[in-house]
Write a structure and sequence with these properties.
single chain; 321 residues; alpha/beta; Peroxisomal Thiolase, Chain A, domain 1; 5-stranded mixed beta sheet
Length: 321
Amino acid sequence: IQQVLANASMTKTDIGFWCHGSCDYMTGQPFSFVSAVDALGAWPPIIESHVEADGAFALYEAWMKIQTGEIDTALVFGNGRSSSGDINRILTLQLDPYVVGPLWPDDRSIAAMQARACLESGVVTERGMAEVAQRSHRNALTNPKALRRGDHSIEALMAAQLVADPLRELDCPAHADGVTAVIIAAGDRARSLAARPAWIRGIDHRIESQNLGNRSMTSLPSAALAAHKAGVANDKIDVAELHAPYSHQELLLTSALGLSESTTINPSGGALCANPMMSAGLARFAEAATRVMNGTADRAIGHASSGPWMQQNLVCVLEGE
């Protein structure tokens, strides 16, 4: 928190609204977000809100509050500690509690079912999944914040041991403890804080049924609709930071968003290389915004997802001036 304030040459009193994303299931105790708020300090008093979700969804709330004209600045952060328990089992708790949940399928097994369906239908290939893993880990070589990185051959990736058929270890997210914080501001206030602000030109999120039997395993209609509403197709996308925890999901998401080969996907390495739960989605927004602000991209996508088979998708289009 102190670092992001210092980067913007701001103090707590300059922030009009604070919004926090986290999940009690991660720590195993109710109202655990209260302890995270301790990091903000007791004085001066602040206006704060919390969402039980990734910090990216907290950003959506903060953006909405700015649209009302009540505030012109907001600090958004998301945090999670995956090491508190078995994250693959913890994520089982988001499933239907009557039919699927009592079977206790872990997160990797649920994702593997989707990957197998995609392979059998021809929507993705094993080589395509390996190419995603190769590119992501290679991109992460230049990202000091990545938990996992490396230069792997396609052959080595495809020969690796299966951890949940057809998924291999590097097809799966690198779960981590972490926090992401960003500051958003309106109009002239943003211009006073950054030489080249990353403007939110469109943002939308959509959710699909919790019932897995009602869902498509080989497409992401909620992501496609969110992309349409956010205006992804209005112009060329230079960079897309996609919160796709599994390699096959990046391929599904790229198709749903209608991205072309000219778009650079996850130059940070993405969730395959560092997936701190409840902040990984907001990290995608931060990475995309950074590339717009430093001039390496004119138009970028920040994306966050939640739920089994990427049930909920939040898409944000960022542009420079």
